[in-house]
Design brief:
Radius of gyration: 23 Å
Number of helices: 21
CATH topology of the largest domain: Hypothetical protein af1432
Helix content: 55-70%
Strand content: under 5%
Number of strands: 0
Distance between the termini: 50 Å
CATH architecture of the largest domain: Orthogonal Bundle
Order of helices and strands: HHHHHHHHHHHHHHHHHHHHH
Length: 458
């Protein structure tokens, strides 16, 4: 698999996960890449700089899941709708205030809504700094873990800086703002307004923000690009993902070996887990348990490594579910439960975008299927559920029950296994569950031995 994948194709595919956490129509980051690379070419940027710009554009929203829970908490609203609508709200004080009043606590009672609005009015600057800094720092950090250079990481970190110095998180101005960030912000606004209102709306918004948000020289470069009919046709094309992959600048040889694929899977698992305080470390733990169970069952090492990637990415579709639902402490209503169930299908769809990952997508996306056919998203039963999926399911359920969640406290290993045992044969595979139990017993025995040895040594 490593030899058949290209970095541009893989990152473009994963960028669709970033689109849904921002509440944007699918393909937003890919379209921003189309826009930004055309601007970069108009500026005649050298290949190395075009390369870093290309990946800055695809990964500009890498840290956006990290402030989703806080947005829900502060604004008492759906984080995805909030993020989508905010990008269209305009830049003036009346528009910002109108947005705050219309979005905050839309489904809360008047007492909670008023309290939240007053908090935002009193502490708006501090809140904005916190939300943007969290996103920027997290995104830059993950970009570095993905082996991208500082030019990409700093482009992501400075996405919300404005040319006149009014942006965040550092209030940078003019050419001090990294060029990749200046182009990425411009491309983002162009795509959002083009998608909602066409080329005229995009151009009007760019002209309105020129010199304030945007570098006038970049606006001039975009005007040259915008005069080309093929640019707009490409932006609206159904096959834009393939076109953007073809745009990838040729800058050296990036080898997608197994180590790099492991790191990419782990990094996007972190993006998923950052969406809720209740899922911190969940994907990594599911990957760990999956690997142990698979080894216990005699799955070959190369297949185990592949399977661990599926486990790390099994919940990538949760980026498309509002934190108002994910973090809800009470019982979900029918509509909310349907939204949660869709996350498995989102996982499958995101990972299926490129052919070499389609088997992995099928395995990861089926982790909520049950042996008796009562699971989702496809209602698979019995032998139609692959062994690899059964392994991930056992690992996922063990971690979900044993860790603290909004709807239940953390549980001990013994309590967790007892609950799972009642599900064996109906929802869970008996062999996979028995393998998990054996692994946990060995780990516990090993830990007790180490404690005894330490005590004797002391």
């Amino acid at each position: 698999m490593a030899t058949s994948l290209k970095l541009a194709e893989l990152i473009a595919s994963f960028s669709y996960a970033l689109d849904i956490t921002e509440g944007q129509p699918e393909g937003h980051c890919v379209r921003c890449c189309w826009i930004g690379v055309h601007i970069g070419r108009q500026l005649q940027l050298p290949p190395e700089q075009l390369w870093s710009l290309y990946y800055t554009l695809l990964l500009k929203d890498l840290g956006c899941s990290s402030n989703a829970a806080r947005i829900c908490e502060l604004y008492l609203t759906d984080d995805r709708t909030f993020k989508h609508d905010f990008k269209l709200s305009g830049t003036g004080l009346p528009q910002v205030l109108g947005f705050v009043f219309s979005q905050t606590g839309r489904h809360a009672n008047w007492s909670r809504r008023l309290s939240a609005i007053l908090n935002i009015l009193r502490n708006g600057d501090t809140i904005a700094n916190e939300l943007i800094q969290t996103r920027c720092e997290r995104g830059a950090g993950i970009a570095r873990r993905l082996r991208f250079p500082d030019a990409v990481a700093e482009g992501i970190r400075s996405l919300d800086e404005h040319y006149d110095g009014s942006g965040r998180p550092d209030g940078l101005a003019g050419d001090v703002i990294p060029l990749n960030a200046r182009i990425a912000l411009l491309a983002q606004v162009i795509d959002v307004f083009h998608f909602s209102g066409g080329p005229e709306a995009a151009l009007a918004e760019v002209h309105q923000r020129a010199g304030h948000w945007f570098d006038p020289a970049l606006v001039g470069a975009f005007e040259m690009v915008a005069a080309q009919p093929l640019f707009w046709a490409g932006l609206a094309a159904d096959d834009i993902a393939e076109a953007v992959t073809a745009l990838a600048p040729d800058h050296g040889s990036v080898v997608l070996d197994d180590d790099y694929l492991d790191e990419i899977a782990a990094a996007f698992g972190e993006v998923v887990d950052a969406k809720s305080p209740f899922t911190a470390g969940h994907s990594a733990r599911v990957g760990f348990y999956t690997e142990l169970i698979a080894e216990e069952l005699g799955v070959p090492e190369t297949r185990r490594r592949w399977l661990k990637r599926a486990a790390l990415l099994h919940d990538v579709g949760k980026l498309g579910v509002s934190n108002a639902i994910l973090d809800k402490p009470g019982k979900l209503d029918a509509e909310e439960w349907a939204a949660v169930q869709r996350h498995a299908l989102y996982t499958e769809q995101i990972l299926s975008r490129i052919e070499p990952l389609r088997e992995l997508a099928r395995i990861a996306g089926a982790h909520h299927e049950r042996l008796d056919g009562s699971g989702y998203p496809h209602g698979l039963a019995g032998d139609r559920i692959a062994l690899e999926t059964r392994i991930i399911t056992v690992a996922d359920i063990f971690d979900a029950i044993s860790a603290e969640r909004p709807y239940h406290p953390a549980m001990s290993v013994e309590e967790t296994l007892a609950i799972m045992a009642d599900n064996v044969g109906k929802g869970l595979d008996g062999e996979c569950f028995a393998a998990l139990r054996r692994v946990l017993e060995r780990e516990q025995a090993r830990a007790e031995t180490e404690v005894c040895q330490s005590a004797l040594a002391a």
